[in-house]
Structure formats: structure tokens, C-alpha cells
């Protein structure tokens, strides 16, 4: 994955890779490395049921379909549906980070495979990797956090809740960003006995859970000091036998985010109902390719109606997976404006994970 990111031919200083008739060369060719480097279209499927070939992506419009295809190709068995949803969630967050924050004009590269005994894994484990050759985590954070000591501290704090390059420390969100993406992924690793590698310009950290004691977590700064990746490279691993309840997993992470949100005066304004009152303007919510820019544009239109005191309802019927980042972009300003203007705001058809996400958002949006 790292080679694929750096070998893209359009880059000014592209790493040159040559097709060699060796085991490593054949493996690289099978994974699509040379096709990605030259910008040729790559077939999705690799080793059926195990490997998804390395792919490029560059826009919000491709995020949902890419995450969906990868998660279904690696985990197509109905018995692994909850694990697939978790992998989809992680992929959406990582892909969006590249599009939203990396400033890599070529976008990013993504791949996935199912690891087993052949790779030295005691338990079957899904591994997904996303990389870009952009500005790096520290550069993305330092404008809003000028006291950061360097890339290592930047990577460590990127795993904190409500820590982002789009708003100052102490706040709980800006229009399109809640600063919860990497926090959710790190907490997921804790809860499923997984592993997370985060390497970016000037530093690299690895977070993993003791497979024999999930309460024991290790965060290691990789040596030597200054090691990293010319861009950002993230790998997440999730053992297949670690959990069976996606809704419960997301709910637990949302509870942990609430616990680490600063204690402020809390307000409750969103009403969760089964039947809407008459004369309420209903908007059907779809994930919309997980495009937080498009979500913010929709939010602006909703806010305009809420400001005019038109009662609004958000209908989440049929939506089982919705990342916290998307909910934030859609509802952060909506909830704040509805409360300020005392305009009724309803939510209907939300499944437990989505409902809990809206409650978490309301908790910090109206808490200061």
C-alpha cells in the first residue's frame, strides 16, 4: 500500500517500481500495484473472499460505494454481517479523512485482505489500509493547535475525541467536523481486540490490544524518532471472532465519547417519535456517499427553514449505518439553531445506533 501511494506516476517525484519476475514482483502484480502506479483501471476482486485489489479514490462520491464493495468482498458471508458493518464504518471514516484533509491532488489508495495462518495470524483477521501522499496529520492540525510540540504529539492527540484541524481545542465541533473519526476507530480497536497503525510525516504510532487480555492496551511510538511516511498511512485490523453486535459496539463507543466530552449545561431539544405531528416538514435522510460537504449544504437548507420556525423532521428509515462525522455535518448547526429559535425538531425511523449518534451529537452541540 505504501509503495502504491508513492509510485503513482502523476506525482512530481514518483517512486519508480519495476515489474520483476520474483515472488515479491508477482505478489505486487497480483495486488494491482503496477496498475495503480500507472493509473490503469483495476478489477475489484483479487483472491475471492480474501483480497481486494489496491484501488485509487479521489472524491466524496466514491467513498460509500468503495467502502461497500470492499467490505462485501472481504466479508460476504451473512454470518459476518456485523463485522462487515464495522469495517464499512472504518473505511468510510478513513477514506473521508483523505478527501477532506490530506490535500493530496491524486486522492488516496485503499486495499483490504483477510489475514489467516498463512500470514502468521492465530485468528482470521480483516486488515484494511488507506494511504495518501498529502500534508500529513501534524500539518493538518497545527493551524488550530499551534502549541503542538511536533508530529508525534499530533498523532497521539488525533486519537482524542473532539480534536481536529478544523476547530480550536476545547470546542466540540465545527460545521463539517466533530473530530471523532479516529477516536471511534481507536475505541473500536480496543473493544474488538484489534490493531491500529498510524504513520504520517515525522512520526508513526501503533496501538494494539493484548489478545489474551482486552483490558490491556499498548500505544507504541515507533523508533527511531522521526520515522513516518511521506503523507499518511493508516492500517486497521479487526479479528473476525471478536463480536457479534454492531449496534452495541457503536453504542458503547458513543457512550465513551460522551464520557470524554467536557461537562457543561446540557439541553434536550430533538424529539424521537414514531408518528409525526401534522404540518411538520419531513426530510428523508440518505447517507449521500458520506459527503460531509453535501451534508453541510443540506444542513444549510434545513437551518434556513428552522430559522423561520418551520417544524422539521429528519426521517432515517432504512438507514442502518451512519457515521458520527456525517451526522455531525448534517445536524450540528441544525440542532443548535432549532434550540435557539425554539423550533420543533423531530427524528423518526432511527435505528438504535443512529438514534444514539444523534443523542451524542445533541449532547455536545447544545453543551457548548
State the gist of this model:
This protein has 368 residues and is an alpha/beta fold. 38% of the residues lie in helices and 19% in strands. A seven-stranded antiparallel β-sheet has the order 1-2-3-7-4-5-6. It has a four-stranded parallel β-sheet with strand order 8-11-10-9, covered by helices on one side.
Overall 3D shape:
globular
Helical residue percent?
Answer: 25-40%
| Quantity of strands, as a count | 11
Provide the low-confidence segments as ranges: none
Assign the CATH topology of the largest domain: Heat Shock Protein 90
Instruction: State the name of the first-level CATH class of the largest domain.
Output: Alpha Beta
Derived from helix and strand composition plus strand pairing, the structural class reads alpha/beta
Strand order in space, largest sheet: 1-2-3-7-4-5-6
- Number of separate domains: 2
- H/E series: HHHEHHEEHHHEEEEHEEHEHEH
**Largest beta-sheet details:** 7 strands, antiparallel
Distance N to C terminus: 41 Å
Radius of gyration, CA atoms, in whole angstroms: 21 Å
Average of the residue pLDDT scores = 87
- Count of alpha and pi helical runs: 12
- Can you tell me the CATH architecture of the largest domain? 2-Layer Sandwich
What's the oligomerization state?
A: single chain
CATH superfamily of the largest domain: Histidine kinase-like ATPase, C-terminal domain
User: Strand percentage, roughly?
Assistant: 15-25%
